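U., I forgot to send this yesterday:
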Amino acid sequence: MSLRERERERETDRQTDRQTETETETKRERQIKRETERETERDKERETERSKLQQHRKAS
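Result:
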């Protein structure tokens, strides 16, 4: 294998590594976004329940 072929192969490997890293980061970002959305939804549900309990206590 010539020097040029090896260098081309290395560059291809680097590009593949960068692409894989980018895909992994994107997956991580999506996962974080989903988790954040779930937490926000849970917080809203808790706040709704808390409000209902407070209103019930005031009515009693």
